Amino acid sequence: MRRRIAVCDDEKIMLRQLSQYLTQIQDETGEQYDLSYFASSEELLEHMPKDVQVILLDISMGRMTGMECARALRAKGCEAAIIFITNLTEYALEGYEVRAFAFLPKPVLYAELKDRLVQCFARMDQQHKAVLPVETDEGIEMLLIDDILYAEVYQHETSFALTDKRITGAVQLSQIEERLAPHGFFRCHRSYLVNMAQIKRIGVDGAVMPDGTMIPVSRHRRKLFLDAFASYMGGRFV
């Protein structure tokens, strides 16, 4: 399988270094990359190939920053994993808004870039195939785990909010919590299990999902939730 990666940085030296790193990663992992390089956010937005899976995106660039570019990409429906490259720590929290996969500080270290890419593609492969069987009144539904926004307690059952519908099944939230944890789900409230990959924004009162729903985060679980989310985003923030 060929992986599709876009690299955007306005520094020629950085583009050259990242190109060398990516070539070496291919040699060591046996992966094959289709690579596209861009020197500005505007160029990336205008010419980014279809089906790009990962974007290595510098934050500090020209007229349009990488963060502004990421917002524009998400607004256009781009679901690629975004790995920000930056030496500006104040942008870290804004990564929540655009669902950044990770932040890599400059100067970029080869080992860190390799680790993030391996983690990213492994998660994509896992989520692409993973399903959750749920018993409903109409039979057993095979839910694509990647499509689950969140699950909530509904009377004595669990209701699953998907990207295109809602399913209620005869299963307890506690029964699926362990099953979904490896796929980036977190029990942020006694009544809610949230897919961290689907979170659009984290506010004071909770997590906002793509459908506009505000998922509450229990006060006593908030720190654990933020730590888990930071880990899911790539291990740490700069």
Q: Bin the helical content.
A: 25-40%
Shape from CA axes? elongated
Total helices: the number is 6
Please give the order of strands in the largest beta sheet. 2-1-3-4-5
Number of domains: 2
Query: What is the residue-mean pLDDT, rounded to a whole number?
Result: 88
Broad CATH class of the largest domain = Alpha Beta
How much of the sequence is in beta strands?
25-35%
Topology pattern, helix = H, strand = E = EHEHEHEEHEEEEEHEEEEEH
**Number of DSSP-assigned strands:** 15
What report would you give on this structure?
- By secondary structure, this protein is α/β, with parallel strands linked by helices.
- It has helices at residues 12-29, 41-47, 66-75, 110-129, 173-180, 222-232; strands at residues 2-8, 32-38, 54-58, 81-86, 102-105, 131-136, 139-144, 148-154, 157-162, 166-169, 185-189, 192-195, 201-202, 206-208, 214-216.
- A hairpin with a 2-residue loop joins strand 8 and strand 9 (157-162).
- Helix 2 (41-47) runs parallel beside helix 3.
- The protein is elongated.
- The model has no long low-confidence stretch (mean pLDDT 88).
